[in-house]
Amino acid sequence: LAFRAATDLAAAIRRKEIGAVELLEHYLARVERHDGALNAVVVRDFDRARERAKAADAALARGELWGPLHGLPMTVKEAFNITGLPTSWGVPEMKGNTAAGNAYAVDRLLDAGAVIFGKTNVPLLLSDLQSYNAIYGTTNNPWDTARAPGGSSGGSAAALAAGMTALELGSDIGGSIRNPAHFCGVYGHKPTWNALPQIGHELFPLMNPVDIGVIGPLARHPDDLALALDLLSGPNPLDASGLKVDLPAPRTRSLREMKVAVWRDDPMMPVGRDVAERIEHVVQALRQVGTEVREIERPPFDVEAAWDTYRFLLFAALNALQPDEPYNGMVQAAAGLDPSDSSEMAGILRGSTCRFRDWAAHNEKRARFRAHWAEFFGDVDILLAPICPTPAFPHQHEGEMVTRSMEVDGQSRSYWMQVFWAGIFGMAYLPATVFPAGLTAGGLPVGL
User: Fold this and answer.
1) Is 95 annotated as catalytic?
2) Which of 14, 117, 242, 284 is the most exposed place for a label (fewest CB within 10 A)?
């Protein structure tokens, strides 16, 4: 029951085959049973959820339907505001930061009838491919608790993979939906930038969307992603009086009629054998059903330039609202850089402290990359690519993102460069869906 699609569970509630209270208690029992080993659902709101589930059952008995998620138990990432619950982003100083209202996306889920019973773990400031912090501790991967579940929506993906929730809401600026979906063997969708309102996904009140950053669903079934996207998409309140989201239907729903390009690997971030094998498995499955597969095809742009543009714009976005003291420290450090310094830290400092003139120049580069992609997808339906070079790796908490290393088939690689595959697509505002592509010989999931 716990592993059925959210759309199926919601339909079962509507048909009164199972009650909202009964289904909620089933999930809460699984949390009590399994979360001690996983530490995924770190903020619990069980009592209010029970009251809402009772109200959902009573409403249905009266013939009232709240919406497509009527009575469905679910969780959301800790980074989203829910009235009366803490929103800390893993920052110890924000431990007591209690939300006075709901995130806009949370209200849309509630308006659709969802029963939200908790929030799931994140890394400090949502800035890692693992999910651990000084407030809530470390979240473990359900497939191997010695390994990370991904980040920053790592608690989201772990809870789904362990059957502790029916649906999840995450966020993504550098793979934070896609990387955990891959590590935990679930589905995750990064929507087109600004298609879903970000208001309330914040530590401090913000009205403007964060550049590159998006919110989006994670699920165990693709139909659940589609339903959640429909429920959550649309303009923010400032634009809603004059704008709407009208997503076109796919050109075809038949794999046999699709043109699928494959970008298997890249020298910027080579993939390991485990991931390469799953790519080949999917390619062969596509060919067996008659899909036109185009090997080694992508837009004709400089990949390193695309990565540099992403890195610059990412850190400009992440640090634009830094408090004065740490920001001024970065300004001083950037001023002291040697002009020839091309290290990761130098790139981070330059992006974090850029002048608007420099940001505008990189934004223009982004527009040109977007034009390349638009032309590419005029003729291609899907681009199949990796999201990370390896399956889930063992917990690694020493050092920082830019100082750690990782191993890919025996070769030491930059830990930070795992963001490469997510970044070059996110920078161009492209939507991307990670889907489970099977298990490695060692029993770990791989997503593409």
Assistant:
1) no
2) 242
